Structures are given as structure tokens and as C-alpha cells.
Amino acid sequence: MGLDRGWEKVLRDRGLIDEQPGENAGAGAEADRPTATVIPHRVQIVLWLPGLVTKSEANTGGKNRSKFSRKKLQRDTVLSCLPLAVPNLRVPTRVRLVRIGSRRLDSDNLQSAFKSIRDAVASWLGVDDGDYANVRWSYSQRPGYVSGVKITIG
Known about the structure:
With 154 residues, this protein is an alpha+beta fold. It is 29% helix and 22% strand. The two termini are 32 Å apart.
């Protein structure tokens, strides 16, 4: 199966084709054609969940029932938006959680606000959320008119 000449030039210019002349000598017309090298691509999943409100669980008062229902809503929303099959991801997998909201949280409250979302992503990946060898977590936040959460996996 040969490559189209246009694609062959593009792949050669990007260094994605290994040219090994003479290796297939005597194999007919395909002997002069370069062989394509498979380069693994970086798989990245990006979720934008507008309207998913994250609050610092450390500073939120109220009844346990409202905390539980808020955490369950976050967990179920994230799991329903992720693909059913987990793709082949590089190890360690990097997960970036970004909170978009009107007010800034300090770093420890930001991490506690993402706890149920982190648990949902770790459950989907099939790892423990404390397994630093396989998953690296990073947190950030930015101001925005529409509050929500952006999750980048990969």
C-alpha cells in the first residue's frame, strides 16, 4: 500500500518517514518507495462544562444532604460527559482542572472544590486519585462571566 505523492512529501518534510533504500531490493516497484513509520500521537480529551459550579467544600456550611447532592451532581456530570472507553494515554497522564468563576479561591480551597471531580476522573481512568506515578493533577482558575469547569486529560 503506497502513499499518495502529496502526502509522502508532507510526511517526509515533517520527518515522519524513514527512507531505507536498498532494504527492499528486488521487491518490485515498491522497493524504491519509502516506508512509513508510525509515530504515536498524543491523545487529549478536553471537556468544557458550563454551569457546573464548584465551591470550596472546606468553607461551605449547610446541611450534609446539600453537600452530598452537589458532589453527586458534579461526579455524575463529569462521568456522563467522558467517553465510554478510556483511550490509550501516556503514563503519567496529566489532568488539568480549571475553575472558571467570578471569585478566586486560594490554592487549598481550589483543590478541595475539585475533589469530587478528581475522584470521578480517577474512577474513569481506573486508577487511585492519589497514585502520583500514573496521574499528575494540576489546578488553576480564571475569571469568567459564565462559571464552569474545563477538564483536560492527556
